[in-house]
Fold this protein.
Amino acid sequence: ESLFILHVENVHLYAHALNSCEGKIFLGKLSKSTLTSTIYPLICSTYILLTGKLHSSGPWAATGSIDRTLVVWDLQHSAIRSTCEHEDGVTCLSWLGTSRYLATGCVDGKVRLWDSLSGICVKTFHGHSEAIQSLVVSSNGNFLISVSLDGTARVFEIDDFK
C-alpha cells in the first residue's frame, strides 16, 4: 500500500493505492502526518496518480495519471463528472482560475485545455519536446506558463478560457 499526498493550500487530496491497483481518493485535512477527517471518499481505477487539484470555487477536484486519464470529480456526489483521455500520461494540471476549464501537462510535451463540464479537449498547445513538469496560470489569468524537462518554459495565451 502507498499513500500519495497532493497539497492544495490547506486541503489535501489523498490517493491511497491498494494492492489490487484500484485506488481510493480522500479529501481531508492533514494534521501531524495523519488523516484527521475524511470528507469525500472517491473511487478511481487509475494505476499511478501523479497530480491533483481542487477547483478554487466549485465542488470539483481533478486528478491526472500516467494511465493517460484526467478525471474531474464532483465532490458533492462523490462521483466522476468527466473522464478525459490523453495520448500519453498526465504529469501535472492546473485549473484556469475559477472557470470551468483546466490545463494538463503531459509526457508527450503537449499542454491541453479541457472543458470540465463536457470532458472535451478545447485546445492543444505545442512547443515542448519532452514531458511537462509544471503549469501555472499568471496572476491576471491571461497566460498559462509551462515548464518542461527539455529545459524550456513556454507562455500561452488563455484569454478565451476565463
